[in-house]
Amino acid sequence: MILTIAGKELKGLFASPLAWVVLTVMQVITGYAFLRRLDDFLQIQPQLTSMAAPPGATEMVAAPVFGTAAALLMFAVPVLAMRLIAEERRNQTMVLLMSAPVSMTDIVLGKFLGLTAFLMGVIALVALMPLSLAGATRLDYGLLAGLVAGLALLVAGFVAVSLYASCLTVHPVAAALAAFAALLGMVLIGDAAGDGLRTRGWTVAAGFAQVLSPIKNFEPFGKGMLDTHALVCSVLLVAVFLTLAVRQLDAQRLRG
Fold first, then answer.
1. What is the dihedral of CA 112, 2, 249, 17, to 10 degrees?
2. How far is 106 from 153, CA to CA, in rounded Å?
3. Residue from 196, 184, 170, 180 nearest 92 by CA
4. What is the residue-wise DSSP string for 168-237?
5. DSSP secondary structure, 46-105, as one string
6. Range of 69's domain?
């Protein structure tokens, strides 16, 4: 049943003009960033040859493009996720879904997987840009794999937070604004809180605070490092907000 709901959401996204607009805007901006970075890299390449261990195209071109994609996704995911629950409730189709023989967990996981699968396609398109240079230069495939994995985990966290925000209101635009505000707060406050706790020597509390700092969890992957703490924090962020979404829908069903 989870896969059925996920498939329905995925088909709905591909049939949605809004999803195609978001996808087009993202590809235009990331494509422009890729070409600019590539042009800068080609201009300084003669100077890099004199260095003992010069950075390659993956560090100079791919990593910044993935960083740009991460920033864009913080805007794009709330826009795509706002309709997941809020629009169903506004159109009063959520009642039919809740009356079906499926649990709230199935509904939440299905919608989460549907949107995440769509966004994995976006990540694949971003990854194809540096891969197009494989025939002309040597790529660091380990770093590229880390960038893809880090961005996938970041997207999963963004989707989970945005899905929970969509459960809180019947107005899709309000859900998008709430999700963006929450993600922006995590970026600004999460990093500051973690650093503040760490300077006071409260390393355990700082470790827990990192759960609410998705961008900080992305940074080690962006450097080609497999940071298990960042991985666990990313997974916990997804689990926490999906659990909150399930509990919110259960409470709404009990209230009728």
1. 50
2. 21
3. 170
4. S-S-HHHHHHHHHHHHHHIIIIIHHHHHHHHHTT-HHHHHHHGGG-HHHHHHHHHTT---HHHHHHHHHH
5. HHHTTSSS---HIIIIIHHHHHHHHHHHHHHHHHHHTTTTHHHHHTT-HHHHHHSS--HH
6. 2-255
Angle at alpha carbon of residue 208, lines to 202 and 210, rounded to 5°: 100
Task: Name 36's Cβ contacts closer than 8 Å, sequence gap at least 6.
Answer: none
Q: How many domains does the chain fold into?
A: 1
The whole-angstrom separation of Cα 231 and Cα 140 is 21
Instruction: For residue 137, give the DSSP letter.
Output: S
Work out the widest C-alpha separation in the chain, in whole angstroms: 70
Under the banding of pLDDT at 50, 70 and 90, the label for residue 2 is confident
Please tell me the distance from the alpha carbon of residue 135 to that of residue 132, in angstroms, as a whole number.
Answer: 7
Global pTM value = 0.88
- And the tokens for 37? 């970075």
| Range in 33-37, 38-42, 163-167 with the lowest mean pLDDT | 38-42
Residues 6+ apart with CB under 8 A from 214: 154, 157, 158, 183, 186, 187, 190, 234, 237
Residue 84 has pLDDT above 90, yes or no: no
The one-letter code for the residue type at 139 is: L
Q: What is the pLDDT of residues 151-161, one digit of tens each?
A: 999 999 999 99
User: Hey, what long-range contacts does 186-195 have (CB within 8 A, 24 or more apart)?
Assistant: 186/161, 186/212, 186/213, 186/214, 186/215, 187/74, 187/213, 187/214, 187/215, 190/214, 190/215, 190/216, 191/215, 191/216
Task: Please state, in angstroms and as integers, the Cα–Cα distance from residue 107 to each residue in 80, 148, 179, 246, following that order.
Answer: 17, 27, 19, 8
